[in-house]
């Protein structure tokens, strides 16, 4: 038998023991997220029902979460899900945790694509956040999504079910030379790996230790390898007038635009994210 605590006691324990690991605001945020997950509490409940006693299972979860936070495990992996573009996505160690910058890319595609029944392909789908949001928000879209990781695709498939959408998932290495596809597309989108090995030192420990390196890194020698390969493929798969969208490395905006121009894409647009960093590129395929 373990001694059971109230919400207030557990919350105070988080605040005391995580001090020094994270800023105060972030710890408060963790406490909100944990109690929303464990008890379905709102922020108001956390104040008005702070004398509620946890049961044994809830208490054990909180203790495990506290220990994992001390090891810098991302809160999204601890509770097993995250919010993206108003939907809930399951996440684990095999998928990148969807980022707010990527919501901006999704928003751009949705705003642009007023076509009915567009055919869309997402390359390097991870949790499936991009295709699932596009399918939900673009009328009668036919959406496909590829990834090289079977484990990631399993998560993406569960997320499609969770969000009541149909996406055609496929295990596919996009760097392979002989990709066969009969797709005729209106939109190709990708947020491929784009962090150079030389940028590792600038990254937070929780990303480096807990998120899949397959989703993150490219070699310093050829950082645009995915952009080149996907753009070349897009020249074959896009219909006349079709659009190619990328999320990009903030330090390689001009290089990515130049690459797309060299392959014949027109009407190139480079966009910044909410933090003012070059983050997205769009180009059009016109024959
Ligand atoms: C930066 S993550 C993006 C995940 C998701 N689209 C998102 O925006 O959150 C890149 C994804 O590309 C996948 N990937 C890496 N190499 C690949 C390859 N050669 N072919 C296809 N997918 C690949 C990884 O498994 C990972 O899921």
Key attributes of the depicted protein:
287 residues, alpha/beta, Rossmann fold, seven-stranded mixed beta sheet, two-stranded antiparallel sheet, 12 helices, 11 strands, binds S-adenosylmethionine
What number is the mean pLDDT?
95
**Number of H/I helices:** 12
Shape: elongated
Give the tally of structural domains: 2
Number of strands: 11
Q: What is the CA-atom radius of gyration, in angstroms?
A: 21 Å
The secondary structure category is: alpha/beta
Named once each, the bound ligands are: S-adenosylmethionine
Secondary-structure element order, N to C: HHHHHEEHEHEHEEEHHEHEHEE
CATH superfamily of the largest domain: Vaccinia Virus protein VP39
Helix amount: 40-55%
Write down the CATH topology of the largest domain: Rossmann fold
**Poorly predicted runs:** none
Instruction: Write down the CATH class of the largest domain.
Output: Alpha Beta
Main sheet summary = 7 strands, mixed
- Distance separating the two termini: 72 Å
Summary?
The chain is of the alpha/beta class and about 290 residues long.
Write the layout of secondary structure elements.
Blueprint: H1 7-18, H2 24-39, H3 43-48, H4 56-70, H5 75-79, E1 81-84, E2 87-90, H6 100-112, E3 119-123, H7 129-137, E4 142-147, H8 150-162, E5 168-171, E6 185-190, E7 195-196, H9 205-210, H10 213-216, E8 217-218, H11 225-237, E9 238-247, H12 253-262, E10 266-272, E11 278-285
Helix pairs in contact: 1-2, 1-4, 6-7
The structure holds S-adenosylmethionine (SAM).
S-adenosylmethionine binds near residues 124, 149 and 174.
């Amino acid at each position: 038998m373990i001694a059971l605590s109230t919400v207030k006691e557990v919350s105070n324990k988080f605040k005391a023991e995580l001090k020094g690991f994270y800023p105060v605001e972030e710890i408060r945020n963790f406490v909100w997220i944990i109690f929303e997950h464990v008890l379905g509490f709102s922020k108001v409940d956390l104040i008005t029902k702070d004398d509620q006693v946890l049961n044994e299972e809830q208490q054990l979860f909180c203790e495990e979460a506290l220990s994992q936070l001390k090891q810098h495990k991302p809160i999204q992996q601890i509770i097993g899900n995250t919010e993206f573009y108003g939907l809930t996505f399951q996440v684990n160690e095999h998928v990148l945790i969807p980022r707010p910058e990527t919501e901006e890319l999704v928003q751009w595609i949705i705003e642009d694509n007023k076509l009915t029944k567009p055919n869309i392909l997402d390359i390097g789908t991870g949790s499936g956040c991009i295709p699932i949001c596009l399918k939900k928000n673009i009328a009668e879209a036919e959406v496909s999504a590829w990834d090289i990781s079977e484990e990631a695709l399993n998560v993406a498939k569960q997320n499609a079910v969770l969000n009541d959408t149909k996406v055609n998932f496929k295990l596919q290495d996009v760097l392979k030379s002989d990709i066969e596809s009969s797709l005729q597309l209106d939109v190709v989108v990708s947020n491929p790996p784009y962090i150079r090995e030389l940028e590792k030192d600038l990254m937070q420990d929780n990303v480096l230790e807990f998120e899949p390196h397959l989703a993150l890194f490219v070699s310093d020698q050829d950082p645009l390898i995915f952009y080149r390969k996907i753009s070349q493929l897009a020249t074959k798969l896009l219909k006349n007038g079709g659009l190619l969208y990328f999320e990009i490395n903030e330090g390689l905006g001009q290089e990515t635009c130049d690459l797309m121009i060299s392959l014949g894409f027109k009407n190139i647009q480079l966009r910044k994210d909410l933090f003012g960093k070059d983050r997205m590129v769009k180009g059009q395929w016109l024959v």
